[in-house]
Structures are given as structure tokens and as C-alpha cells.
Amino acid sequence: MNDERVRIFHHNQNMGKGAAIRTAIEHSSGDFVIIQDADLEYSPEDINLLIRKINEGYDAVFGSRFFNGRPEDESLIHYFGNRFLTLISNISSGLKLTDMETCYKLIRREIFNSIRIEENRFGFEPEITAKLARAKARVAEVPINYKARGFSEGKKIGIKDAFRTIYCIIKYSLF
């Protein structure tokens, strides 16, 4: 890639999503932080949807895969698992989200910088959600396009991540 605005950073070993986000934030600038997984399950073209919504006065905007129901290619187990985890998150946080686990989030930098991210893996999603709620951030959702990947295509999230998510929801919402 020949774009001086894009810089690539590597860890010597895979330290997880949360660690990657912390490293990226240290080296980024601008008024907003956008989190989008690089596997292209989420369309980069939807960034404008999140930007338009945040410009309505929100502190954070989540791109929801489930805003308009279940995506056709989403497995039932992942769909119901996500719905269950989002329900627990909503009860704990007071938010009314349809997709807490989304990997497409736009957050105002001043809000993001006020939050200390601790999780290294997929616990980042419930952690940032709980901490935004505790900070009384105004959080909105917009529907986004989503192309689910399966395990054969490299999807790595599993049942142990679901248990970690529940732990993180409780830890960061209540303590």
C-alpha cells in the first residue's frame, strides 16, 4: 500500500484484538476512533452511515448486523449467542442495543481516550460497551451490511469467548 496516511504496526506475537486496538490508538490521530475488523465481514462502505449518525450528536455509534433481523448467512448458533450476550449487556448497562458484539464501532476520540481498555482478546467488545454506558456516553446504532465468515474461512470466536464475554459484561458493568 502506497498511502502515507496508512501505517502498519505489528506485535512480535499475536496479543489479541484489544492489544491491537490499544497499539493502533497510540499511533492514530483525528476526532474519531473507528473499529472495523480487517476480515471484511463488515463493508468499509458503511463507514459513512456511522459518521452521519455520530454527527447527530452521539458519542458512539455501533454498526448493527441485527438491526433489521438475522443476516441470511449468519449461523443460528452465532445469531442466538449474540442476541443472548447483547441481552445480558443491555440489562447490565441500561443500553438498548441490538448488537453489542459488533466489530464496527465509531467513537469520539475524547470519549475513547477517557476509557482505559484492559482486555486483550474479544473481551474488548463488552468492555468498551460497558465503559461507554458507565461514562453516560450517548450510544446509537445503525444497520450495516454484513457477510458472515465460517470457521473454515478463519473465524476464531468460540464458546470460551462467550463465557469470557459474560465475565467481561459483569466485571465492567458492575465493578
What does this structure look like?
This protein is 39% helix and 11% strand. It is α+β, with helices and mostly antiparallel strands and 175 residues long. It is globular, with a radius of gyration of 15 Å. It contains six helices and four strands; from the N terminus they run H-E-H-E-H-E-H-H-E-H. The protein has a four-stranded mixed beta sheet with strand order 1-3-2-4. It starts with 16 loop residues before the first helix and ends with a helix. The mean pLDDT is 91. 33% of the residues are buried. It has one domain (17-147, 156-174): Spore Coat Polysaccharide Biosynthesis Protein SpsA, Chain A (Alpha-Beta Complex), CATH 3.90.550.10.
Keywords, please?
single chain, 175 residues, alpha+beta, Spore Coat Polysaccharide Biosynthesis Protein SpsA, Chain A
Q: What is the architecture at the second tier of CATH? A: Alpha-Beta Complex
Count structural domains.
Answer: 1
Low-confidence parts: none
Give the SSE order as H and E letters. Answer: HEHEHEHHEH
Give the class-level CATH name. Answer: Alpha Beta
Number of strands: 4
Report strand order across the widest sheet: 1-3-2-4
What is the mean predicted local confidence, pLDDT? 91
Overall 3D form: globular
Which percent band covers the strand fraction? 5-15%
Helical content (DSSP H or I, runs of 4+): 25-40%
Specify the CATH homologous superfamily: Spore Coat Polysaccharide Biosynthesis Protein SpsA, Chain A
Concise structural overview:
With 175 residues, the protein is an alpha+beta fold. It has six helices and four strands; from the N terminus they run H-E-H-E-H-E-H-H-E-H.
